[in-house]
Design brief:
There is one protein chain. With about 375 residues, the protein is of the alpha/beta class. It folds into two domains: about 180 residues, 3-Layer(aba) Sandwich (Rossmann fold), CATH 3.40.50.2000; about 190 residues, Rossmann fold (3-Layer(aba) Sandwich), CATH 3.40.50. Helix content is about 50%, strand content about 15%. It contains 18 helices and 13 strands. Helix 10 packs across helix 16. The radius of gyration is 21 Å and the shape is globular.
Length: about 375
């Protein structure tokens, strides 16, 4: 079968590539064409556009690149119609993907699947109308989404497990390097490691990294090690690290988390990854006009938390320092608790175990691929009648 996929960022590239592998295992004639990234390209198929040409974050950057965004949307729609895939698979990235889904649903008979469902439970809940109208099958990777979509909105959804769990477990099963060897390889001292995961986008790094470093500098017993984000060139970090005692490792985030003793992490998948490696963490997410954003957050957001750890657990497991709450003194206070209060640290680790149980067992890409192919084969048989 012919599969057309669309992702808009690095995490989508990773999850889509694993889904593609699972589809190839079940469909020996699978053909792929996509808006995606390097990991998807490594699986095979045709790259129409790299996701780096799509990813704009924030109101001003989006406004400045509207012409490019609309041009990419038009190219994507035309390319899908011309290639005539058996299915269109959308991966997160709702601002772009829901527009594509609307067009494909109204102009073709190509079924639309959504893998990693849009987080409309957090905000823009009105998008449920678009999903009900334009999406044929929805695949969730967060267990609490089932109640939101099915219980609240009466829209069927498949919870397939969480692919991050698969990726972490696969890494752990193969990774054997000792902490001492990791430190030697990267020129680190014997001191405990304080990992800095400052985001995957330039704006996130710009907003968070300086404050993270300033806060962590008050703990000289620890050495700071920054996880370089995929797609970010090393020299982008130079202005933030000048004069600072911070080591950077690129393409080694899981290795770093394997040996970290504590971490400062921006919100996103990284919070979940850090928890699955059982590293105590502080969630840090600075936003300009913090007081205003904090006020608007109470009015706009439909959820109490922003980190996946807390959302999956259904309670506060990790401390979230967001908007005006993300200050150097607040970060230091939380780091002090995590490094000096064993009972507090152990409480967080127990919360990680609770969260992991709710995620279930590994196998998300395989489960999703099975459901997708089963649907498509039944559809083919019904259309052949």
């Amino acid at each position: 079968m012919k599969y057309y996929l669309i992702v808009g960022e690095a995490s989508g590239d990773l999850h889509a590539s694993n889904l593609m592998r699972a589809l190839k295992e079940r469909d020996g004639e699978a053909e792929f064409r996509f808006f995606g990234g390097d990991l998807m390209a490594a699986v095979g198929g045709t790259v129409v556009k790299h996701y780096k040409e799509l990813a704009y974050m924030g109101f001003i950057p989006v406004l400045m690149h509207l012409r490019t965004i609309f041009r990419n949307m038009r190219l994507c729609k035309e390319d899908i119609v011309q290639w005539k895939p058996d299915v269109l698979i959308l991966v997160d990235y709702p601002g772009f993907n829901l527009d594509i889904a609307k067009y494909i649903h109204s102009h073709t008979e190509i079924p639309v699947f959504y893998y990693i469902s849009p987080k409309i439970w957090a905000w823009k809940e009105y998008r449920i109308k678009n999903i009900k109208r334009d999406v044929d099958q929805l695949y969730s990777i967060l267990p609490f989404e089932v109640e939101f979509f099915e219980g609240k909105h009466h829209y069927p959804i498949h919870y397939v497990g969480n692919p991050t769990l698969d990726e972490v477990e696969l890494f752990k099963s193969d990774y054997k390097q000792s902490t001492a060897d990791f430190k030697t390889e990267h020129g680190l001292s014997e001191r405990p490691v304080l990992a800095l995961l400052a985001g995957s986008r330039k704006q996130e790094i710009k907003d968070n990294l300086t404050r993270m470093i300033e806060a962590a500098s008050a703990f000289p017993r620890y050495q700071m090690v920054l996880a370089g984000a995929p797609g970010i060139l090393p020299d982008y970090y130079d202005p933030f690290l000048k004069g600072q005692s911070v080591k950077v490792v690129f393409g080694k985030t899981y290795e770093l988390l394997s040996h970290a003793d504590v971490a400062l992490v921006t919100s996103g998948t990284a919070t979940l990854e850090t928890a699955l490696f059982r590293v105590p963490q502080v969630v840090c997410y600075y936003i300009k006009m913090g007081r205003f954003i904090s006020f608007m957050r109470k009015l706009v957001l439909r959820v109490k938390f922003i980190s996946l750890v807390n959302l999956v657990a259904g309670r506060e497991v990790v401390k979230e320092l967001v908007a005006d709450g993300m200050t150097v003194p607040n970060i230091r206070a939380e780091l002090d608790r995590l490094t000096g209060d064993e009972a507090y640290r152990s409480q967080m680790l127990r919360g990680y175990e609770e969260m992991a149980q709710k995620l279930g067992t590994p196998g998300a890409p395989q489960h999703a691929a099975h459901l997708m192919l089963d649907y498509l084969l039944k559809r083919q048989r019904n259309r052949g009648r």
